[in-house]
Each structure stands twice: as C-alpha cells, then as structure tokens.
Amino acid sequence: MIHVQPDARLVEALVATQFPQWSALSVTALASVGTDHALFRLGDTMLVRLPMSQSAAGQIEKEHYWLPILAPHVTSPLISIPAPLAVGEAETSFPWRWGIYGWIEGESLCSTRIADAKQLAEDLAQFVVAMRSAPYDGTPIPPDSMMRGEPLWLRDTQTRNSIRALSNEIDMPKSEHIWEQALSAAPWTRSPCWVHGDLLPGNLLLRNGRLCAVIDFGGARVGDPAVDVMAAWIIFDRKVRPSFRDSVDVDDATWQRARGWALSWSVIALAFYRDSLSPLSAIARRTIRAVLSEPGD
Questions:
Q1: Is there a single domain that holds both residue 208 and residue 255?
Q2: Is 244 a domain residue?
Q3: How far apart are CA 169 and CA 171, in angstroms?
C-alpha cells in the first residue's frame, strides 16, 4: 500500500499551483491522532486535509459532496461540522485529491480536559440524534472498509482474532462473552440512518468547555446507529454513560450492539497499534477497560 507523509512545503506548492489566490497564506502542520489524513492550517481561516494512503483517498470527495447536504440537519448554534471550500487535484507530487475546509476554532478532546462530562454527554447525544434523523436520498455511498454501520457479524473473524492476539493483556473469556452477547442482540431492522462512524476523541472539538464541532466525516454513511452509540464507552466513564444513553435514546438491543462495536473497535485498534506510539493505543486500552468493567456481566 502506498503511504505518503505530506509536509508543509508540499502543501505550499499544491496551493500555489492550484489556488494561487491563497498562495501568500502561511501553511502550518498540525498534530493529529488520526492515521488517514495529514492536516495543515492555511492562513487563519482555512484547513488543508491530505489523505496519506489509498484507503483514505476517496474520503475527500465524499465529504465535499455530503457535508453541505448534512449541515442544515446536524449543525446547531452550538455544534458545527466542517465546511468544504475547495477540492485540489492530484499531481505528480501528490497522487490523490485533497481538500480545503473552513477553519473551526476549538481544542481536540485529546488535548483538553473535560470540564463537565455530563454536559458533553448531552451535547454529543444531541449530535448523534441529529445525524440519525437527517434525511437520506438514496444516493450510493462508496463501501467502507471498516464496515461502519453494517451488521456486527461482518467483523466477527477480525474481532475474535484480535481478542486472541491480546490474550496476554486482556480478559479473553470475558471479552469473547461480551462479543457473543452483542452478536446475539436483535439487529437494526428499521430504515438505515446516518452515522458519523468515527466518534473518537480526536474528532470532537471543544470551546469554553463545550462541544463545538464534530469533524472527520470520512467514515459517515447510512446503517445501524449503534456504531455512533459506542462513544458511550470510548468517551465516557460509567458515571456519565447513563446520561449519554438517556439522551441518545436507544433501545436495549442497540445499546448491546453499541457495546459490541466499542469492544470490536478497541481490540482491533490495540492489536494493530500496541507496539507503536500511536495515541490510539491508549484510547483503545481505556475503551477495553470501560467495556469489560461494565456492571451486570
């Protein structure tokens, strides 16, 4: 697989060639927990996003098509989503299309302390419900390699293999039991609904202690809303989780599938990243602890 690590000099050249009206603006590389895109601030009011691998390459076009359609339904005076401004074309120096977005002022949840976790739970639930309620016109959405929004059984082999790979680090019997419970939960039988698909700390921005934006819609699609509800274990502890559940308003089966999603995502991520310095390994470990320590098992 081709993997590219863009730098500020490349971005300056791409902008100068394709968007000369912005060529005088400064380009600053930004730290990111994500593994799909490199991020750069362009001037004071824009963000440049470049895919780093072929698997992420289609996300730019997807976002630039769907974000303007979703925006009227999921934004609020409190919570915004990225606003696409332009799509850059591939060149000999960079093999994929890339995007320019409006800058959103805020701090990643990865780098700031949660002042009021209950309020954050209510704010994030508001966004999840808005996504779930947004209309979908049936326009085809490209397949998702992570199977977000799809039935859990499609991730069964990879999830079980990851649990076994982590047997020296996690409670394997309990993990397998929780996974089997999730697989046996009643499936989503209503119409597929919009999901963000990647509600990780790095994709949530806070301003003055409140959720102000949800970013990175590369995994957005329609399907089972349980994939977004897994934020209950990724983001919140057991004291706050009930507030999120009450606000997100899902039935027992969806909650059970969401817990399975949280387990599946975290064991797969940890099995892949545990020998690296990726912040995702710490997030995955924390999520596994949250899932396995849930009362009632």
A1: yes
A2: yes
A3: 7
